[in-house]
Structures are given as structure tokens and as C-alpha cells.
Amino acid sequence: MQTIFVQFKCRPGAAYTVANDLQESVEEMSEVYSTSGHYDLIAKFYLDDGRDLGHFVTEKLQVLDGVADTFTTVAFKAFGSAG
């Protein structure tokens, strides 16, 4: 299983719509958060091993209405969980 985090820059006023669309249409998504700074949202995705990350991001995420830009980070190892 591959874990990636994708930050989303949304068009003005579209962050809540994008977050809702991610929840409803992207089954690989684990969670999504609103953020401050250069990006409006960050979401965590679990992808099957061997899945092409580029195709997933460009064909499933960047095409969502309201998405202006994305920034993808590949995670290698989880060291534990909070709480």
C-alpha cells in the first residue's frame, strides 16, 4: 500500500466544494483537512502498490471542479499515531 498526501490550492470560494467532492468521489481518500498558508486543503490517500501516482493525481484529483493546483508528497514510513 502506498500513502500519499496531496495539498490542494482551490479557486476562490471552492475549498468546501472540493473537500466534499473528494469525500464523495475518491474512495482512495482517507481524510481531508482545511489548512492555512499557500494551499487550502490537504488530503491523505492510500493507493495499491504499483498504482501509477501520476495518473491518479492528474486524472482523478486535478480534474475536480475548483482545483487550481496540487502538490503531492509521497510518504515512506509511519512512525506512530497521535493520541
TrEMBL record:
SUPFAM superfamilies the UniProt entry points to: Dimeric alpha+beta barrel (SSF54909)
- Residue ranges constituting the Transcription regulator AsnC/Lrp ligand binding domain according to the UniProt record: 6-77
Q: Which residues form a coiled coil?
A: none
InterPro entries this protein is in? Answer: Dimeric_a/b-barrel, Tscrpt_reg_AsnC/Lrp_C
Name assigned to this protein: Putative AnsC family transcriptional regulator
Q: Which organism is it from?
A: Aurantimonas manganoxydans (strain ATCC BAA-1229 / DSM 21871 / SI85-9A1)
